[in-house]
Write a structure and sequence with these properties.
Radius of gyration: 20 Å
Helix content: 25-40%
Number of strands: 15
CATH topology of the largest domain: Dihydrodipicolinate Reductase, domain 2
Strand order of the largest sheet: 14-13-12-11-7-10-9-8-15
Largest sheet: 9 strands, mixed
CATH architecture of the largest domain: 2-Layer Sandwich
Distance between the termini: 48 Å
Shape: globular
Number of helices: 10
Structural class: alpha/beta
Strand content: 25-35%
Length: 332
């Protein structure tokens, strides 16, 4: 038998295919089974990834040789599906967000901890080489005191999902684009500047169907006093990513068109920073596999995922109540 970690995939959609493909690029994971309620989807997935299609989630979890699952089910059943896996002793890689509420995020974390299974969260953006470069320079003091950051994460999602899809609904994805993709850059901003203490939000619905914002902005004050802004959109003409970090001694500027640049205090010419592109999704999955085998722990587990969720949900509450929200309120 292979010494690879044997995993099943539950909740098959386009992102599960991305994750399964990344798992195949790791040295320590093997996709052996899959389940979703649609027979057509699971048979197609099984054929593409050369794994077994099983006809129930219970049957997948009952496999004694299965080590863990990749869980890409809708947010509102993350707790139920993760609890079932933990009860069977299966480790869980859960795509973000951890849940739709802070309370469920805390419960998922507790369920996995009590069962002794490894919970890893899908936050691949923080692992991208340009952000790691900035993180390293912040930690060695190159940036000095961090004072500000601005970020944008935008995509065109018109026509990408069928009408009524859970991602278009406030029940299925509270906060809309702010939770769906903005969460990634909230995580990166907290990694670089530290935890967020207060949030003020604004949002609009301009293009997409449903009852959820497709444009949203968060103004955040971090615990260290730094201020950051995050603009998110599912209504823009194209995909675009921006992350600018300002310190007293240095600043860094990243966007997906021009790459990473760097500017030292007292200079007026940006330096281009060449970083080798890395396989961020495969990296986080491989880390989960190593943790299952007792080698270290996931960089983002339930605690970190619940913290970033609380930041976004504070922004959602801010939009509704038209006031600045302390993140700690979301844990009450």
């Amino acid at each position: 038998m292979s010494d690879k970690v044997r995993i099943g995939v539950v909740g098959i959609g386009w992102w599960s295919n991305v994750l399964a493909s990344a798992a195949q690029r790791t040295p320590n994971l093997e996709v052996v089974s899959c389940f979703t309620r649609s027979p057509e989807k699971r048979e197609a997935f099984a054929e593409e990834f050369q794994c077994a299609a099983v006809d129930s989630y219970e049957a997948l979890l009952d496999d004694p040789d299965l080590d863990g699952i990749i869980n890409t089910t809708p947010n509102h059943i993350h707790l139920e599906t993760t609890r079932q896996a933990a009860d069977k002793g299966k480790h869980v890689f859960l795509d973000k967000p951890i849940a739709n509420t802070v309370q469920e995020g805390l419960e998922i974390t507790k369920v996995c901890r009590d069962a002794g299974v490894i919970l890893a969260m899908g936050y691949q953006r923080r692992r991208e080489a340009h952000f790691r470069w900035v993180k390293d320079r912040i930690e060695d003091g190159t940036f000095g005191i961090l004072v500000q950051a601005e970020a944008n994460i935008s995509r065109d999602r018109a026509g990408k999902f069928e009408p009524g899809h859970w991602r278009y609904t406030a029940e299925g994805m509270p906060g809309g684009v702010m939770l769906q993709i903005g969460l990634h850059y909230v995580d990166v901003l907290e990694m670089l500047l530290g935890p967020v203490a207060e949030v003020s939000g604004m949002a609009s619905q301009l293009v997409l169907p449903g009852d959820n914002p497709d444009v949203g902005s968060l103004l955040m004050k971090h615990e260290n006093g730094a201020i950051s802004t995050l603009n998110t959109s599912y209504a823009s003409a194209s995909e675009h990513y921006v992350m600018n970090i300002y310190g007293k001694k240095a600043s860094a500027f990243y966007d997906d068109q021009q790459g990473l640049r760097y500017l030292l205090q007292g200079t007026d010419k940006e330096q281009v920073v060449e970083v080798a592109e890395n396989d961020a999704i495969a990296d986080e999955l491989a880390e989960w596999g190593r943790a299952i085998r007792g080698e270290g722990s996931p960089e983002v587990g339930g605690g970190g995922a619940t913290q970033s969720l609380a930041v976004v949900l504070a922004g959602v509450r801010s939009v509704k109540e038209q006031r600045t929200i302390a993140v700690k309120e979301m844990f009450d």
